[in-house]
Specification:
Elements (H helix, E strand, L loop, with lengths): L20 H6 L6 H25 L9 E6 L6 H14 L4 E6 L6 H5 L8 H6 L10 E2 L5 E4 L8 H6 L1 H12 L4 E6 L7 H6 L5 E7 L5 H8 L7 E7 L3 E4 L2 E5 L12
Length: 263
C-alpha cells in the first residue's frame, strides 16, 4: 500500500536561522577546513544505512523509521558533532530534507550553539497540547535543513517525554513529509532518564562511541537500554570505523592529528 500523507497548512515561521560555517567550526560542531573533505566523504557513507533503513521500513505502520536518535553512553563522546554532521550530510542530498531536533532538553547545548535557546521548541509542544509543533520548526539558510529547539525548561521533563503526547508530537514531525528524516540529538544514555525515554519513540538509533575512551562496559550497558532492532549503527568517533549489523563502512578522519569532536 502506498502511504499518502496530507500536509496541514504550511506553518508560518518568520525567522530564518542563519547557520555560518565559521561559527560551527569555532563551536567544534563541524571539522576544520583542512579536515572537511574527509568528514564530508565519511558522513556521506554514514547516512546511507539510515536512508536505506528508512526506505525499507517507511510504511504507514512504521513511520518511526523516519526518526533517528543520535546518542552516546557518556558525555564527551561526540554525539552532538555527529548529529550536526549527519544533518548537514542529509541536507546535501537533495532527495531528502532533514529536521535536526535538540532532544537534550536539560542541557540544550545544540540550541545554544545555534542561537535558538530562547525559541519555543520541543518542551513547549509537549507541555501544551494546543501548540502545533510544526509551527515551531525553524527554517535555516541551508536548503533542506530545519531545526527544532529544545524549548523552555519544564519540571517533569522525563514524564512529558514518556507521555502519550510525545508520540503524537513525534508522529506529527515524521508525517509532515515522507522525504523528511528527523535527527534527534539526545542526552547520554547512562546519564539521563530523558534519553532512555526518547529511545521508545524512534525507529533508528545511532550510538556514538569515543574510540579509546568510552569503556566497553559503558557501551554494553548503553545498548541494553533499547531494543537492538533499532540500532542502525555504532559510530566509533575519532578515526575508527562506523560499523553496524550489516558490516563495516568507512573510516573517520585521517592519519594526522585527531579532530576535536567531543561535543
Amino acid at each position: 500500500m502506498v502511504e499518502v500523507i496530507t500536509k496541514p497548512a504550511q506553518a508560518t515561521q518568520t525567522r530564518t536561522v542563519t547557520i555560518r560555517r565559521n561559527a560551527l567550526s569555532s563551536a567544534k560542531l563541524v571539522p576544520e577546513v583542512s579536515e572537511e573533505w574527509h568528514v564530508v566523504d565519511q558522513y556521506r557513507r554514514i547516512i546511507r544505512p539510515i536512508i536505506e533503513r528508512q526506505n525499507a521500513l517507511n510504511t504507514a505502520q512504521d513511520i518511526a523509521a523516519r526518526l533517528c536518535l543520535v546518542t552516546s553512553a557518556l558525555s564527551g563522546d561526540g554525539k552532538t558533532f555527529a548529529s550536526m554532521n549527519l544533518a548537514l550530510s542529509i541536507a546535501r542530498d537533495r532527495s531528502y530534507t532533514v529536521l535536526l531536533v535538540d532532544g537534550d532538553v536539560a542541557k540544550r547545548h545544540l540550541s545554544h550553539l545555534l542561537g535558538v535557546e530562547k525559541e519555543m521548541g520541543l518542551m513547549d509542544a509537549l507541555g501544551n497540547e494546543a501548540v502545533d509543533v510544526e509551527s515551531l520548526v525553524l527554517p535555516t539558510n541551508i536548503p533542506g535543513l530545519n531545526i527544532l529547539s529544545a524549548g523552555r525548561g519544564r519540571v517533569g521533563a522525563t514524564e512529558l517525554l514518556l507521555g502519550a503526547h510525545m508520540e503524537e508530537v513525534m508522529g506529527c514531525l515524521s508525517q509532515w513529509d515522507r522525504d523528511r528524516i528527523v535527527i534527534i540529538d539526545s542526552p547520554p544514555l547512562l546519564l539521563s532518564a530523558e534519553s532512555r525515554a526518547l529511545t521508545h519513540v524512534v525507529g533508528q538509533i545511532v550510538l556514538v562511541v569515543r574510540a579509546g575512551v568510552t569503556p566497553q562496559s559503558a557501551v554494553t550497558e548503553a545498548m541494553s537500554q533499547f531494543s537492538h532492532g533499532k540500532l542502525t549503527g555504532v559510530l566509533f568517533n575519532q578515526k575508527l570505523a562506523l560499523t553496524d549489523t550489516y558490516g563495516r563502512y568507512g573510516t573517520y578522519g585521517d592519519q594526522g592529528a585527531p579532530v576535536d569532536n567531543s561535543k
